[in-house]
Amino acid sequence: MTTMKTTSPDDHYLFDSGSDLGAQQLNSLSALFDGNTRSILSPLLLPDSPHCLEIGAGNGSVARMIAEQTGGQVVAIDLDTTHLPKSLGVEPRRHDIREGVPVGPFDLIHARLVLTHLSARREIFAQLVDELAPGGWLVLADVGLAEELLVAPQESDHDVWAKYNDAAYRQIGPAAGHDYSWADQIEAAMLDAGLTDVAAEHVVPLGRGGGPWAMYHSNLSRQAEAPLLSTGLSMEDMERYRTMLADPEFRARFFSLTYTIGRKPTA
Ligand SMILES: C[S@@+](CC[C@H](N)C(=O)[O-])C[C@H]1O[C@@H](n2cnc3c(N)ncnc32)[C@H](O)[C@@H]1O
């Protein structure tokens, strides 16, 4: 393990991956985004039996995908490994990435929706680059805000939407260390770090009322209910937010996802 600790006193992960809601959240992410992730990872040129690192592995779906596709070994780390089973080629490890990056060299390092949450993301990023093997790939997927309420079931829902987003994305998220602008900085960070073959893809999923992306956000509102209410958001607005997200008429954009790849030069 690299020794440099990058824990900030303000940082705390807002969600409980080991809980039932946490399990639903992780399963939703797999269902929503593993297809995109597969299409980003599949074309990467890797050696036979590569050594890989999956950070914030969640339920392990991406770690298993990498192990199956490459025949390699994947060290899969997460703060909470309750829903992260051992499987062929996948070694789950309970580990806080802020305590240091496992020692490589790794042919592939992947993290989806993790660095956005961590205020020490730049220091961790530098450690990840250090632990890449020559020719190794770094693949990061992070979120940006794309808040847009396209169809509101009721006129007053615009107000509820604005109040909820203010509490979630301008108060409790930043207070927990989130930076929603990081996703757009990764490409430049990779170029500055001397990585090659740098490329980025940006997707903005549409949330439909009652659909998986809207229900994912409803789940987040439940997991983070206490801090959301502590901002002054009322329970009435919280409940209306959830009802709106379940309404078949509702259409909105929540987050964008940016997938950025870069490769360590071979010499
Ligand atoms: C939003 S979830 C994403 C899960 C998975 N990467 C995916 O996209 O399906 C973030 C994951 O990162 C883990 N996590 C959060 N902070 C972490 C840390 N400091 N070190 C390791 N894992 C962390 C959480 O437990 C959770 O499983």
Automatic annotation (TrEMBL):
InterPro entries cross-referenced by the UniProt entry: SAM-dependent_MTases_sf
Domain of life, per lineage: Bacteria
Gene Ontology MF terms: methyltransferase activity
GO biological process, one term: methylation
Pfam families: Methyltransf_23
Keywords: Methyltransferase, Transferase
CDD domains, per database record: AdoMet_MTases
PANTHER family: TRANS-ACONITATE 2-METHYLTRANSFERASE-RELATED (PTHR43861)
Protein name: Methyltransferase domain-containing protein
Organism: Brevibacterium sandarakinum
